[in-house]
Write a structure and sequence with these properties.
Two copies of one chain form a homodimer. By secondary structure, the first copy, chain A, is α/β, with parallel strands linked by helices. The first copy, chain A, is built from 18 helices and 14 strands. In chain A, the strands form three sheets. Chain A has a seven-stranded mixed beta sheet, sandwiched between helices. A four-stranded antiparallel beta sheet of chain A has the order 10-11-14-13. In chain A, helix 17 packs across helix 18. Chain A is globular. Chain A starts with a helix and ends with a helix. Chains A, B: This is 4-aminobutyrate aminotransferase. Chains A, B: One of its GO terms (biological process) is gamma-aminobutyric acid catabolic process. Chains A, B: Its cofactor is pyridoxal 5'-phosphate. Chains A, B: Belongs to the class-III pyridoxal-phosphate-dependent aminotransferase family.
């Protein structure tokens, strides 16, 4: 990492978390016109206009997954306005992909700048014709967030392709290590053209039960969240390792959870060892919190062991921070919670969502051996890099990672108290991980009913896994939003 | 297709090609400040500033694929300005991805509009929270170009993911047809979670030798252009069929070419038949011109047969128009050249590049059976849909498809004359396909040397295949650009 990037990262991540920091930042600093509270005036959300809009879209695109059709012009900060004019506190944030809020004036100003306007309408093929400002845009933006030890960046257009580019780089680096100084053989070059060995090798990516890494053919082969995402789609015969099923509250299940993590680590190592003689594991991919699969957590010690065991058996280690990255867990990158030592850092860290730009941080040693091996027309998008730059600047300026950590602490504490007397709710988790909180209901239908009540009570929240709900508020979520959220949770639980 | 879309498509495609139409449109109509000619003032292109910029970027990203670092603020219309201030006539257009030109004032105006500014900074999860304007934006934009019979649209972020979404939809539709009315079995749902049969079926996508369909794991398995794109990357064991190697000029090799196409069709059908009992082909994917693989063409009759044979054997037919789409071949979609009858239309048409938006046009019958089967966070990008809408409007308003067809005719004629006395150049092709022209040199190094001379002579042109060059000018390429291009080709050939 360049010295400049390293210094900036420390600024983003190493500030002491002051007790009263929740009081230092208010979302109205960034979004002066944010509404004071939700307001719902239709009997159900979505209302009639929302339904009509969905029906219109459904002539062209599947609308069965619509939650609400939104009026983004009227939305502001933490509040999403729907087609019927309902104002909802949004703690799902476009599946965890809005960092600061809707219509943040300083972001709109960036979009109106000449720099941005020229960048959006003159989209370059970045690999061959990059803009003269590209180095500067990266160094003053995305590179400021480069995880320790990872000073190279492949930009992409989405999280799935970030993961797949990490897979490709890992496969190439793995084969390069095996191959040594020699070049590709003619047999390799010929056989890969018919998708056969040795040119198309039988290498694998190991992923974890309940993990989600995307929906393209490589990333979907590593995804293990829900059958409906995978059924009928051909998949690579790649291995899956168990992920710990921890019991909550953690402090009451210390020994069981340790045993569960140990069991999972042993089985994971066994797969790595056994596959060596059949289809070696070139890379291991893991999310710091298995989000789409149900917000599954494990201890920092477990993740450190995962990383060490991967290294021991020669597998590259990919941390998928697409959902966990950019501050919501109270660290800029969630894997900073793990306490990895120098030399133990991940080989690849992938990102997307709240960063708006997508890509892979990696080490110079995993650059492909020859040009054009990882390449494409666009290879990222300069306007998303410019947007990311401003988001990063505002996060840093307003101390929003620390703010979110403090918000998470008080929110977790309030929810813990509230849920003490609630038999319907269990497994509150994510404590000490910012606002990245979740809990379970006993059934999926109860969960879905709760989410409907929340919407009617003015809060847009999301589900995950089979029967979980997840909080994914923006980084500008503050005390006043917390009060509204807690009231809505209480009312919605009563309404069930 | 909606009536409105059908009517608009006719406007885009069915205007008679008037003889003098090359004189009707001048690029200065759209781009008043376009330079009059190239100007190169460094000894080589790129010059010292370009090299320095590449070295700077290389600290972060691989710069070995850089051609020139560009100054997009200064570029205009058909002219790309590089870091050293050289002004190059750009007939490669960011690997065929710029439709109208750099800094087209009417496009910059769209980028400055409130509608656009709000859309770019409030990026929705389109599958769940689409904007209220989404139906309108699609109907007044992308849907106006929907190929006949394909009235559904999946939006994506790039061409590779467009192709992979088409694959997924084809696999699902294929299995749904086999399955009939029954739901997924428990065995299917369980087995797909470990990437095993029957849930992860042994179905395949058939592609063609020299085809290029992207670089993610599914699309790369169908890509057959160059070994360096594929080596070391695990691939699905999918079949490849031969693509005709036509001889030029076509009129001198009628019988041989017919025999070659017949041979290829027979082998293709044989693969479809033989695979039925092993790993059935669920989909066939083909580019109308195999571009990256060396600009390989075949006759409309060949493509009609491909489509008919796919249908006969139950395989879905995907036309990859990522590079060929949006007017450059003298039709809005290149597959319009084939003369397919009603009922013979493709099942899927994928697009990206010049459209700036990416996606898949398809039929309602290939919508997945259940929600969330084809889904993701962003599922396209509203700002690229808005950009596409304006591009489509300007193409229509200025008759740029017809203009490009006429330009292609005169350019092909001039090149044919010029090459008559040239022994270094062979296989001029793409005649009657707009400006989508290409030719071969005897060796790759001669080709590369030619491209260097062209740059020094003020023209940025691209290569493809082993020893080909391809013209991929914008749709605003006109008579004055043609003169400059022809002069540069002549000088560069002399310089070899």
């Amino acid at each position: 990492m360049s010295r400049r990037a390293a210094t900036s990262l420390r600024k983003l991540t190493a500030r002491p978390i002051a007790g009263p920091s929740t009081r230092c930042f208010s979302s109205t600093t960034l979004i002066p016109e944010e509404p004071a509270h939700p307001s719902v005036h239709t009997d159900k959300v979505p209302g009639p206009k929302g339904h009509a809009a969905s029906q219109g879209i459904n002539k062209i695109q599947d609308s069965r997954t619509h939650v609400v059709v939104a009026d983004y012009n009227k939305s502001s900060g933490n509040y999403l306005v729907d087609a019927d004019g309902n104002v909802l506190l949004d703690v799902f944030a476009q599946i965890s992909s809005i960092a600061l809020g809707y219509n943040v004036p300083e972001l709109l100003e960036v979009a109106r700048s000449d720099e941005f306007v020229h960048a959006v309408m003159n989209r370059p093929a970045l690999g061959s014709f990059p803009p003269v400002q590209w180095e500067e845009w990266l160094n003053t933006g995305l590179m400021k967030t480069a995880p320790k030890g990872l000073d190279n960046l492949m930009t992409t257009l989405c999280g799935s392709s970030a993961n797949e580019n990490a897979f490709k780089a890992a496969f190439m680096a793995y084969r390069a290590r095996e191959r040594g100084q020699t070049d590709f053989t003619k047999e390799e070059l010929d056989s890969c053209m018919v998708n056969a060995k040795p040119g198309s090798p039988d290498l694998t990516v190991l992923s974890f039960k309940s993990g989600f890494h995307g929906r393209l053919f490589g990333s979907l082969s590593a995804t293990r969240s829900k059958a409906i995402h995978k059924v009928d789609i051909p998949a690579f015969d790649w291995p899956v390792a168990p992920f710990p099923e921890l019991k909550y509250p953690l402090e009451e299940h210390v020994k069981e959870n340790e045993a569960e993590e140990k069991r999972c680590l042993e089985e994971y190592e066994q797969i790595l060892v056994q596959s060596k003689t059949t289809r070696p594991v070139a890379a291991v991919i893991i999310e710091p919190v298995l989000s789409e699969g149900g917000d599954k957590h494990a201890s920092p010690a477990y993740f450190r062991s995962l990383r060490q065991i991967a290294k021991k058996h020669g597998a590259y280690f990919i941390v998928d921070e697409v959902q966990t990255g950019v501050g919501a867990t109270g660290k800029f990158w969630a894997h900073e919670h793990w306490g990895l030592q120098a030399g133990e850092e991940p080989d690849f860290v992938t990102f997307s969502k709240k960063m708006q730009a997508s890509g892979v941080f990696h080490k110079a040693e995993t650059r492909p051996s020859a040009p054009y091996r990882i390449y494409g027309t666009w290879m990222g998008d300069p306007v998303r890099a410019l947007q990311a730059r401003k988001i990063i600047e505002l996060i840093e300026k307003h101390g929003l990672v620390q703010h979110t950590q403090a918000q998470g602490t008080s929110l977790a504490s309030a929810l813990t108290s509230m849920f003490r007397s609630q038999s319907m709710v269990e497994n509150l988790r994510g404590i000490n991980e910012g606002t990245f909180l979740s809990w379970d209901f006993s059934t999926a239908s109860l969960r879905d009913s709760f989410l409907g009540h929340m919407r009617k009570n003015g809060v847009q929240m999301g589900g995950c896994g089979e029967r979980s709900v997840r909080l994914r508020p923006m980084l500008t979520f503050g005390e006043k939003h917390q009060e509204i959220l807690l009231d809505a949770v209480q009312s919605s639980l009563k309404g069930l």
